[in-house]
Each structure stands twice: as structure tokens, then as C-alpha cells.
Amino acid sequence: MKCHVPGPNVKVLARTVHALARFGDELYLESLPDCILLRTLNASESAYAMVKLNKNFFSHFNYNYYSIENDGLKCKISMKSALNAFKSPAHMDKQVENLEIKLDPHSSKLIFQLKCKHGIVKTHYVSILDCKAMQAIYTKDLVPNRITSSQRLFSEAIGNFQCSDDQVTLEVTSESLIIKNFGDTPTDLSRIIRSQVTIKPFEFSSYTIGTDTNITFTMKEFRALLGFAEGLNLPVQLHFEITGKPAVFIVHNGTTIEAHFVLATSKPDIATQYTSQQTTNSERKRKDDSNDNNISAKKAHLEDLSNQFQEDSNLFNYIPNNISQNVIENINNLEKADSMDTNRDNIPASPTSKMKIASVFKRCFESTFDPRIIHGVVLAENSDSD
Amino acid sequence: MDDGTSQYYFTACMDSGKTLYNILKSIQFQECAVFCAMQEGLKLTVEEGKCVQASAYIPSDNFTEYHVRDDVDVLFKINISVLTECLNIFGANEDSSLKMYYRCEGSPLLLVLQPQSMINVMTDCEIATQIADSILELRDEDVPEVAKLVLKASAFMGLLADLERSCDTIEINLSPEHPNVSIITYGMQDRSCIDVPKSSDMVQSFSCRQAIRLKYQLYHLRLTMKALAISSKVVLRSSSNGLLLIQLKLEKEDQRQMFTEFFILPLLDD
């Protein structure tokens, strides 16, 4: 894959990378015949972002430059490396004239070459960590609730909230939308400042609520995507269903760029991050049960690939690089699969080393510890008789 | 007055202490500096672990009055952070005139500062001095210069600022062939490379006799950044033994000039 990004779009790409960096630590890049997809997933797998850069975003686009095969390329790089190539998005359009991205299937490096002012050429050789692509399964089209807002409206509302607020709740009815930082039950006393912003439907460019509901999602990613939309001066579309189903934020300009930000939602009155994820996972599972067979069939072999994702990647499917590799892995896993199938429900006991250490020094933790009761050989006598 | 000053080893007067403060701040990465007053001007030198030597040189024409006794060496060690603190005693927004006195070996350096906007306010500072340590003599006349590069200071600073902070070493390749200057940094897994051809606007002059590959600690090069920020022009000279000399020129509003120079020792190839 080889493509050229013209100067003004380099700034857009830099803003995209910076927004994605607020989501996850790894960046997945996939080149398709007519577009490039950038994806990321956060560590707790509760937020996913996908940015599609269409062919006309680039001044030159050749997705199979190095190979004759009609197969797109996929790679995973560290987000840090990507950020290193796009350091200061605000000034990038002034310095950079052109960016060339090269991905050779036989090389282990992804190349970003920035042609800057003063004839300076900066080349970043970024290591490819993996050749996998990752894709989330979510619905954005057949949902009852759709809101389109100008990029300013949400950011201004969010500006009233504290930096320490980690979650935000949207309470929607057909009459109004309420953004607040607390749930319904007043159990959480640690939250001192409670904020609530009510926005009337006429403030939005479009407002369709089929089902009254309230959804809670993380603030950090919400701020990141709003910042992205604001930087690009594009409106935000929010598509969502009910509590527990993911909320999809769409930012697009219709021609060159389209970004989807998917945030897992939870019930609003859950105090900690941990429990909220637990809920999301179980909610997700419920959702997946209703999904069509095609997806669950896909999942079946994914479970062989990595047990790690069995529990929590129901929303997110990993697509292997190519089938041949997959087959080899499947063969390798054949013998394992039998034993694994039977043991699948058994969760191995966690290591107990911590307990052992605690018991070695157990006496120290007793409230009535008296050093005199330790009888034994004195290895080093007190040096001073006093 | 002349009779009064002649008993001092060194006296100097300056209308504005601001530029002096800025230039001393830019080499202040160590506590102590060697203060040396010569007939031509004043020079303060700091060293970082015998790897980097930075000097600020203020030619005597920057002073309204400048006297050094020619029969003695005016050389002592002084705490440079205390010195800069004293120069900035009226705060960053207040420029002050400055007088400096140094009576004899072992006596403190006396500073008299008077703010320009306030009359009848005066500060008298006494900074203790110590016997100077020996400074490395890094300039070797026998070693030929291989490459010389004159760059715009702001553009060079932009390049240094853009380098990845996490990497330790920087490799500079200079060559008579295109690309004439190439700066390579190695990150955790990644490699970044900046090519600057001699035709670039930021390169004011370039001469290089043979291709040379130099390796330095990035941290050492970063020490020049404060000086780059206040300078207009930077000269990079490289000797065949790998020693890098970075000379920076600071131009004041009154057409007078001050200089900083950094000697940076190379990393050995492993």
C-alpha cells in the first residue's frame, strides 16, 4: 500500500490519530481497495473507534502497490509510535507539505514520510506489531434514537462538568435531553458536585427519540470524540438504543472521512468503573445471543485462536490475517481443542503465593505480637549491651 | 573614581542586565560555573560530567564600563543559579542596570542592581566565590575540522524539539552527497530519520569534506535548546575525532552580540 496525503489533510490525519490515542494504545490499520481504515480499542474493551479515510482523502492512493495480489493489508502498530509521527496537529499543516504512507507486506515496518518546509524530509519507520485486523459488531442504522448535534453543543454542555467526572449519563425523552454526572440513587456520597444540563430538542439539528431511556458512558472518550469533531468542524450524530446497548457517535463530512466511535453503555447508578464494565459485558452477551448465526459461527473458531477473548470480546471480533495461517493454527489447536472443550467451564484457581507470604510474617500482623516469644538461635547478638 | 576602581581586579557596568540574565540562564544546567574575566570580555563556563562544556561569552563592548587588571588572572568559581537569581531580583518584568565588582582573589563578587523604572531603589548582592576547578581544554588545533554547518537557530530548535523524547542517542550523518544532513533517532522499536539537504532555507552554509557519522547523547544536544531559543544563528562544527562544537550567536537590539558555545563529546561506537 502506498498513498500520499496532501498538506491540509495531514492535519486532519494528525487530529484523527490524536483522537484515537485517547481511546486505545494500539492502532490497527487496514487498507482496502477504496479506503483506509484506522481502528482502535481501549484496554477494558468498552470503547472502540473506527475512522474510514476514503480514496479521495489522498492525492495518490494505491492499495496494492507492492503486491499483485488483490488483498488488502492489515497491520497493528503501537499508538505511541503513531503519535510520534504526528506530534503537533495544530501546526502540522504549516510545516508539512505532503505525507507518504508506505506499507510493504514483506517488510516489518510501516513508513511515514513527511515532506516538510525548508526541504526537510522526516521519515518514521514504525514497527509492525501484528498483522491482524479487529472489527467491532454494532448496529447504527436500525436504532430508535438518533440525535444530530452541532459540534459545539455537546462540548459546551460538557464544559460545565468537572475534570474528575469519569462518567456521564444521558437521559433522553422526546421532550428533552438531560446530561448529568450522577445516577438516580443518591448512594454515592463521594461525588460532591452534581451537574445537570438540560437541552431542548430544537437546539439539535435533528432529534428523534423512539424509546425513552438513559445511558451512561465514559467521559474521557466522549471528550476525545467531541474534541475531534470540533477540530474538524463537523457535526456529531448519536445513534443509540437503550441502556446496555452501545452508543455510536458518527462524525463524517460525506466525502473523505467517516469516523465511528462506539461506547459501551451501562446503567447510570453504578459507582465504580469496574462494576460498570461487568454490567456491560453481560449486557453485551445478551445482545449477542440475539445476533445472527453467521457471527456466532465466526466466533466459534476465534475461541480456538485465543481463549483470552472468550469472555469479553463478544462485541469485538478479531479477523485473522489470512486463511492459510488460520488453518495452520486450527490444526495446531485440534488436539488442544478437545481437552479445552471439557475444561471450558472450569476456571483454574488463582495462585496462592500471596497467602503464603502473608503467613510467613503472620506473627508480625498479630495485634499482641511480643518479640520475646520468638525462641531460637541468636544469629547476630546485640552489639551494645545497653 | 579611577583610583577607586584600580584597586579592584575586575569592575564592569551595564545598562541592562536582562540579556546577561537570559544568556546565563541558557547555560545554567549545573550549579556552579567558572567565571573568567579577560580583556576581551567575560566568559562563564559550566561542565556536565566532562561530556558537555558550555560557555557564555559576553564581549567587553556590551558593557558601558569594563576594567580588568592585566597583571592578574581573574578566574573563580561561582554559583551560577545564585548569580542569575540576583540578576533577576526585581522580577522578569523589571529591567535593571548592573554594576559588578571583584576586589581580589577570595573576595566575594559584588553586584549592585538598580531598576530602571524606580529611582532610589538599589540592591546590593554579595556572592561568595571559590577557587576555580580546572576546565577541560577540548579545542585541539591539531585535529582537522571535517564539517561546518551554519543554520537558522529557530529551525534547528524546531528539529530538536520534534525528536522523540524517549530515545537516548542521536546519530548525525554529514556528507557532501545528498541528503547532506541526516539525523537519526532510535526509539523503542522505531527509527526516525530527518533529512536536510544543503539547499534548504534553514541551511545558510554547508561545507563537508568527507562523509562522517557521529553519535551523541540526545540529552546533551537538548542542553542547547534554551540557548537556541534566544539565538539567531547556530554554527555546528565537527572535528575528525567526533567532537561537536555548537556556537550560537545572540543579537541584541543595540547591534551588540553575545555568544554561547557548547562542546559535546561523542559516544563511542560499540
From TrEMBL, chain A:
Keywords: DNA damage, Exonuclease, Hydrolase, Nuclease, Nucleus, Phosphoprotein. It comes from Danaus plexippus plexippus. Belongs to the rad9 family. Coiled coil: none annotated. Transmembrane segments: none annotated. One of its GO terms (cellular component) is checkpoint clamp complex. This is Cell cycle checkpoint control protein. It holds the Pfam family Rad9. Its main location: nucleus. Component of the 9-1-1 cell-cycle checkpoint response complex that plays a major role in DNA repair. The 9-1-1 complex is recruited to DNA lesion upon damage by the RAD17-replication factor C (RFC) clamp loader complex. Acts then as a sliding clamp platform on DNA for several proteins involved in long-patch base excision repair (LP-BER). GO terms for molecular function: exonuclease activity. InterPro entries: DNA_clamp_sf, Rad9, Rad9/Ddc1. One of its GO terms (biological process) is DNA replication checkpoint signaling. It is found in: Nucleus.
Automatic annotation (TrEMBL), chain B:
Keywords: DNA damage, DNA repair, Nucleus. GO terms for biological process: DNA damage checkpoint signaling; DNA repair. InterPro entries: Cell_cycle_checkpoint_Rad1, DNA_clamp_sf, Rad1_Rec1_Rad17. It is found in: Nucleus. The keyword Magnesium does not apply. GO terms for cellular component: checkpoint clamp complex. The keyword Nucleus applies. SUPFAM superfamilies: DNA clamp. Its main location: nucleus. It comes from the Eukaryota. Belongs to the rad1 family. This is Uncharacterized protein. It comes from Danaus plexippus plexippus.
